[in-house]
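Just curious. Protein, please.
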Amino acid sequence: MKFRPLLAVALGGLGAALLLSDPSWAQTATPQAAPPTPTPNKGDTAWMIVATAFVLMMSVPGLALFYGGLVRTKNMLSVLTQVFAIVCLVGLLWVFYGYSLAFTNGGGLTPFIGGLSKAFLRGVTPDSTAATFSNGVVIPEYVYMAFQMTFAMITPALIVGAFAERMRFSALMLFVTLWVTFVYFPIAHMVWYWAGPDAFGDAARALAAATDDAAKTAAQAKLDEVTADAGLIYQWGALDFAGGTVVHINAGIAGFVGCLLIGKRVGFGRDLLAPHSLTMTMIGASLLWVGWFGFNAGSNLEANGTTSLAMVNTFVATMAAALAWLFVEWGVKGKPSLLGMLSGAVAGLVAVTPASGYAGPMGSIVLGLVAGGVCFFFVSTVKNAFHYDDSLDVFGIHCIGGVIGALATGLLVDQALGGVGLPDYTTKPGELTVAAYSLGPALLAQVKAVLLTLVWSGIGSAILYKVVDLIVGLRVTVDEEREGLDLADHGERAYSY
């Protein structure tokens, strides 16, 4: 019986020899498995659902209470109604066609806008997925769609603060419908639409595996096609982690144009137009800060180390900006104010938004200190010098803070300054690595992104304001303004006592 082990060894060796001598046998015996289809991780999915709810909380009740406390008693209800109505309106427009225009390929118009292939959420199912920023990692597309929807909701709601207490409700609803369609959706597409990490990884892997000139040419053409399947600002290499350009500069400049075209409030510069409830504003600002963790940390689209970095940056930049504004105002005016500290906190949140996943914590602190001081200067000195009536300082905080943050992102992403470095998906196919950093090109890309956003939103908004004015009229009458929009527009009061 001792010969059996020897016989088994001999037969095994013969089988191995046959497999090695005939490649077709080997291929038949060990077929090459296709890479598995990525499936959503339950932890990533759960985090993104929470983040989506957090961003909704930023609008209602956060922004509504923040703005509502800053207006006079007779206009409190109108601001609450405007913000809530905008959230509902834009959410429906987003699922009807906004998501498709922002996050699909638009053919020849892809650098500027997407198409209608996913209008009315066509093709989006509980099983469809959306890419994150890691190769082989996805989340349910419904979750991604809803997360991006909350960004679309809050952006036009921010504009309300620039012309609060004097715009017709009907005009506002018409303007918002046009504005998100012709301004927000294209900007969101230009900044955030791209083919995804796996498309880059697959194309780069095919190029690396090509062995002859013809194969290399074809593989390079495919990589070029994937690179071109992106919005214009993304193609420039501009970085916007969570919406410095898309949300804050976009809304800030639109609000500024609106306050200039609509004109000043009755009694501006003569009557006391003080906030009626800084308590409400404090509650709203606090809800904004909490919700902003969904805004910034959620923009990583998964739960990992970069998510934690965005969380920390959202803490430290906000604290630094709040204290910077507080102490600068204390030095200039002689007293530290709650409103100043809250304004500084929002300025810090705005500034760190585009940098939250790219900068290091120390860089974010410096960014917050700069944003707090500079935004205070614009809200006080610049505003007083030019006498424009930006009711709730949308331009001075959101536009200026967004510009500071967008430009600083190109600098603070540098690993030498504690940043994470520029993302690179092609050098090591299928793996996210860090690209070589060069200050000039990085800053130039950010400058171009800022300028395009200012021009697109500024000019586009001016045209849309004029169109709305011709159709329904932008401004309430003087008598209605004096009575207050609560009664004039809505027939009810915020307070009945």
Remarks:
- The domain at 43-194+230-490 is CATH 1.10.3430.10 (Ammonium transporter fold).
- The chain has one domain: 43-194+230-490.
- The longest strand covers residues 129-131.
